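Whiteboard transcription, Tuesday session. T.W. wrote the C-alpha cells on the left side:
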C-alpha cells in the first residue's frame, strides 16, 4: 500500500506544479504585453511616420508581388510602385490642391449668407413653430465677427508664414517626419516578405498553425477593409466630385471629396454628401430650384448604385469587414487615447480584436460552461 499511496500523494503535487508553471507563463505574457503597450504610449509622438509608412507598405505589397511574378526583381518592383505613387501625389498637388483652395475660399465667403438665412428664415420659423422667445439666439454677432474677418483673407499666407517662422523647430520636425515616410516605406516594402518569414520563424512550433490561422484571418479583414474600402472611398469621392461639378455646383469638388472620405462608414458618405450638396445648391441659386436639386439627387443615386452593384463586390467582395459601429468607436477611441497615432492604429487593432473575439465566442460555445458537463462520479 505504501508505494501506491506514495504515488497517489505525489500526483497532486506534480499537477499543482504544472498549474503554477502555466500561471507564471500567463503572467509573463500579460506583463510583457502591458510593457509593450506602455512603451508604445511613451514613443507615440514619433510613431506617426513609421505607422504611415507601414500602412503604405502593407497596401503596396500585393502590387509589388504581382510585378515580381511578372518577372521584375523586388527592388525594381518597389521602384515602379514608388514612381506610380509619386505621380499620383504630383497630380493631387498640381491639380486638386489649387481647386480645393478656391472652393474653401468660396465656402468662407458663403458663411455670412448662410447665417442670414438662419437668422431671417430658419429661426423665425422655429420661433413661431415652438413658441420660443424672440432673439433667443444672436446670430447677428456671429455674422459681424465672420464678416469682419473676410477683409483679412488676403493676409492668410502672411499669417501662416509668420507662425511657421515663430515655430521653426516644429516646422522642421514636421518636414523631417514627412520626408521620413517614403524612406521607411521603401525599406519596409523591399523587405516585407523577408520580415514576415522571419517573424513566422520565431513562432513556437506547437502554436504556429493557430497563430498563422489567426493572422491570416486578420489579414483578410484588414485587406478587405483597408485596401478595399479605401479604394471604394476614392472611387466614390471621384464620382461625387465630378458629378456635382457637371451639374454646376460651385462647391462640387469639396463636397464630393468630403462625401468620399465619410464613406469609410457605410451610408455616412451618402448622408453627409447629399445634405451638404442640397444646402450648397439652395444657397447658390438663392432658393428652391428644382433642376439643381434633381441633379444632386441623380449624382448621389448613381453613386449609391455603383457602390452597391460594382465597387463593393469588385473591390471588397464578400470578405468580412468591420461593423460600422466598430469603425466609429475604434477611430474615436484611438484618437482620444493616442491622438493621430491612435487613429492610425485604431482600425488594425479593431480588426485583430474582432477576429480574437470571434474565436473566443466559438471556444465558449464548445466549452463546458456553455454546453454543460456531466457531474464527476
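and on the right, the sequence the group agreed on:
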Amino acid at each position: 500500500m505504501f508505494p501506491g499511496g506514495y504515488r497517489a500523494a505525489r500526483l497532486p503535487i506534480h499537477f499543482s506544479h504544472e498549474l503554477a508553471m502555466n500561471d507564471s507563463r500567463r503572467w509573463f505574457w500579460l506583463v510583457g504585453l502591458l510593457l509593450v503597450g506602455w512603451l508604445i504610449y511613451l514613443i507615440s509622438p514619433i510613431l506617426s511616420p513609421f505607422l504611415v509608412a507601414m500602412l503604405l507598405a502593407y497596401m503596396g505589397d500585393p502590387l509589388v508581388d504581382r510585378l515580381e511574378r511578372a518577372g521584375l526583381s523586388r527592388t525594381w518592383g518597389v521602384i515602379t510602385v514608388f514612381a506610380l505613387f509619386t505621380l499620383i501625389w504630383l497630380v493631387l498637388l498640381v491639380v486638386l490642391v489649387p481647386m480645393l483652395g478656391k472652393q474653401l475660399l468660396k465656402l468662407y465667403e458663403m458663411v455670412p449668407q448662410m447665417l442670414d438665412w438662419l437668422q431671417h428664415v430658419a429661426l423665425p420659423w422655429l420661433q413661431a413653430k415652438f413658441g420660443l422667445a424672440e432673439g433667443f439666439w444672436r446670430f447677428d454677432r456671429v455674422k459681424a465677427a465672420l464678416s469682419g474677418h473676410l477683409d483679412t483673407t488676403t493676409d492668410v499666407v502672411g499669417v501662416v508664414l509668420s507662425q511657421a517662422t515663430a515655430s521653426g523647430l516644429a516646422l522642421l520636425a514636421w518636414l523631417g517626419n514627412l520626408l521620413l515616410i517614403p524612406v521607411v516605406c521603401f525599406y519596409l516594402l523591399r523587405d516585407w516578405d523577408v520580415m514576415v518569414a522571419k517573424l513566422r520563424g520565431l513562432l513556437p512550433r506547437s502554436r504556429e498553425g493557430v497563430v498563422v490561422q489567426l493572422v491570416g484571418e486578420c489579414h483578410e479583414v484588414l485587406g478587405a477593409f483597408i485596401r478595399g474600402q479605401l479604394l471604394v472611398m476614392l472611387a466614390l469621392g471621384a464620382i461625387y466630385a465630378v458629378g456635382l461639378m457637371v451639374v454646376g455646383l460651385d462647391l462640387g469638388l469639396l463636397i464630393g471629396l468630403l462625401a468620399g472620405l465619410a464613406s469609410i462608414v457605410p451610408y455616412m458618405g451618402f448622408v453627409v454628401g447629399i445634405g451638404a450638396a442640397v444646402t450648397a445648391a439652395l444657397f447658390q441659386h438663392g432658393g428652391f430650384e428644382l433642376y439643381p436639386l434633381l441633379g444632386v439627387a441623380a449624382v448621389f443615386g448613381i453613386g449609391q448604385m455603383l457602390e452597391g452593384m460594382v465597387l463593393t463586390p469588385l473591390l471588397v467582395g464578400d470578405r468580412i469587414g468591420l461593423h460600422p459601429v466598430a469603425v466609429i468607436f475604434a477611430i474615436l477611441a484611438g484618437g482620444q487615447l493616442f491622438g493621430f497615432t491612435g487613429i492610425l492604429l485604431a482600425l488594425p487593432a479593431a480588426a485583430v480584436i474582432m477576429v480574437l473575439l470571434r474565436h473566443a465566442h466559438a471556444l465558449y460555445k464548445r466549452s463546458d460552461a456553455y454546453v454543460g458537463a456531466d457531474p464527476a462520479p
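Someone added at the bottom: The chain has a mean pLDDT of 77.
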